[in-house]
Amino acid sequence: MPQTPMPPMSMFRTAVHPGLWEHKGKVAAVGVGHEGTARRWDGTAENCIGAWSIAACRKAIADAGVNPADVDGIVLDTSTTTGAHWPAGREIPMDVVQKFNQTDDPLDGIAQLSGEWMVKNMPELTNVKYIMTGPGCMSACIVVAAQAIGDGLAHTCLVLKSWHNLDGRYYQGGANAEPTISGNAKWTNPWAGPASLGTATQFQRYMYKYGKSHDMMAPFMQNSRHNGLMFPEGYWAQHRPEELPAEDYINARWVAKPANLFDNDIPIMASAAYLFTTAERARDMKQKPVYILNHARDNLVARGFGGFPTLEECEEACANVGVRLHEGAGIKPDDLSFENMYDGFSLFHVFHLEGLRTHGIGLGDALDAFQGDISISSPFPISPSGGNIGSGRTRFWKHTDCIQQIQGRAGARQISVPANIGVSGGPMPTGGNFTVWGSSPD
Amino acid sequence: MPKQSPVPDALDKPYFDALNEDRLVIQNWTCCQRLQHPPAATCGGCGSNQLQHMSWKQVSGNGTIYSYGVVYDSPIAVLQADQPYNVALIELEEDPGVKMLSHLPGRAVDDVPIGAKVKVIFETTPATGQKVPEWQVVS
Questions:
Q1: What mean pLDDT value characterizes chain A?
Q2: Which of A198, A327, A334, B94 is the most exposed place for a label (fewest CB within 10 A)?
Q3: How close, in Å, is residue B66 to chain A by CA atoms?
């Protein structure tokens, strides 16, 4: 795949007390574009991840009402996999490849996505000068784009994250099917299991430490699916418009107990793009600007295996992020109107939420909070986006929701309290990126 | 319980060689007096990569169950026949910050006492005969 540059670590705010973000309120989100959801790729050119990415970007540009020639930046995650990689030896569908202006890698636009591919296939983007990777997910793309605009490296920037999903069960096969194991996996594979096992051990420890039960997650899961069904761009709303009754959740089969089927977000294909610009330019655009007040990153290095940080390490990382987010945005924890922290796997939403130390929710309190009103009508709505649980594994519903809530465009999901300040980010409790969004630049 | 056989490399060969002699050794970075597992080419405390700061310390093989999960849907082929199975995180007596994984042989599924004392045993993996550490609850 053609190289899309990686951002320097200096773009990420990791200091324990980073101070007010130097670009607070000077960068704004002004456009949102979503294209498609599907459980798996159908093999057609019109539904390949490249085509959906183009469509999402064009929608974001149109939503913002900008001239494509004004776009001078694009930040994207070049990895598009949900865990499904193109199998070695599988024939690449050249009829799909030939429908696009291809780079030197035929899988570009099918099972990965370079900045070069996007620019080659969006001829209306005639002035893109800043192309950068947001590694891992939309949360990182947002941080990189916001910092780049603040630093003057771009003024009108597309922020893109896409996901492909192929047929078959992912993570099966390859090294996992072999009798021996090398590399880092040698420390876990002989014992371990699915990706959610690490989170399961953290949540098990959480229940032991605070005297809680898995059943106490049910109201959160119901609320998330309910909110997701009000997200017209989401997978469940589009394909399986079913509420999630508590008993269905509680009785679902285990994947890695205490993580069950519904705690594991469903892998899907999807694409979303945002348009970011300077606060100054945003004033004249079509949509109400949503100002970025701060971004922060967790940089805690867990002592244990990859995927197996301890509960205490998760709690420390989330608490650090909370402090960084509030201080850098110049807000108090209770200034948050709502939260859209990450939830795929659902169980660690508890850790993210408690790290914010907001609205009386401290360590060991989240599951108790879930037993009260956490709906979009509550004084402090929990995950009004519905997150990955409500709309499928993309890691971007939460960001879209923050933008739309503050713009007053969240439709049926619009929260009852004034949506002045929201927070979103992820993915994992250790190593994530997070953003504070505001209706006012101040 | 059959497992994949880990393949040693130059860095971790002393660890796996010791297991084959029924000894548990852990990488020890003397620059920070820090036990580290899995082994790495640099000290996780200070970043040193000076080999004179790195040694292997034999530990007692005593530990405590920190937490666990029960796997019902593993992507690892050789483990699937034994589903569901326990996966416990064991913290070492010498340094609870060092964790190891275990299937807790002899323990019923989902009957895992967090906080219980455990003792290491050495289990042979089928593909190569390489031994790996396993842990049993001390009654």
A1: 96
A2: A334
A3: 7
Mutate to test the interface with A, among B87, B92, B102, B107 (most CBs of A within 10 A): B87
- The domain of B18 spans 7-58
Q: How far is B65 from chain A (nearest CA, A)?
A: 10
Do B126 and B88 lie in one domain? The reply is yes
Q: Does B33 share its domain with B54?
A: yes
Q: Is residue A242 very low, low, confident or very high in pLDDT (cuts 50, 70, 90)?
A: very high
CATH 3.40.47.10 fits A9-168+267-282, yes or no: yes
B43 within some domain: yes
CA separation for the pair A338, A402 (Å, rounded): 9
Predicted complex ipTM:
0.98
Closest partner residue to A308 (CB to CB) among B7, B99, B102 is B99
Nearest to A190 among B6, B66, B70 (CB): B6
Pair (B102, B44) in one structural domain: no
Mean pLDDT across A83-103: 91
B87 and B46, same domain (yes or no): no
Asked if A254 lies within 8 A of B73 by C-beta distance, the reply is yes
> Residue B101 and residue A178: Cβ atoms within 8 Å?
no
CA angle A147, A152, A154 (to 5 degrees): 80
* Residues whose CB is less than 8 angstroms from the CB of residue A38 and which lie 6 or more positions away in sequence, other chains included: A47, A165, A235, A239, A268, A269, A270
Query: Do residues B75 and B139 both lie within one domain?
Result: yes
User: Which of B58, B76, B96 corresponds to the end of one domain?
Assistant: B58
pLDDT in tens, A364-395: 999 999 999 999 999 999 999 999 999 999 99
- B13 lies in a domain? yes
The nearest alpha carbon in chain A to B44 belongs to: A303
Nearest 5°: phi and psi at A357? 50, 45
CB–CB contact A204 B114 (8 Å): yes
Q: Say yes or no: A168 contacts chain B, CB-CB below 8 A.
A: no
For position A307, what pLDDT does the model report? 67
**Could you tell me if residue B1 is inside a domain?**
no
Is 90 exceeded by the pLDDT of residue A433?
yes
Domain range list for chain A = 9-168+267-282
Count of structural domains, chain B: 2
Mean pLDDT of A70-90: 92
Nearest residue on chain B to A172, alpha-carbon basis = B75
**Maximum Cα interatomic distance, chain A, rounded to a whole number of Å:** 62
The amino acid that residue B129 corresponds to is G
Domain boundary among B58, B78, B95: B58
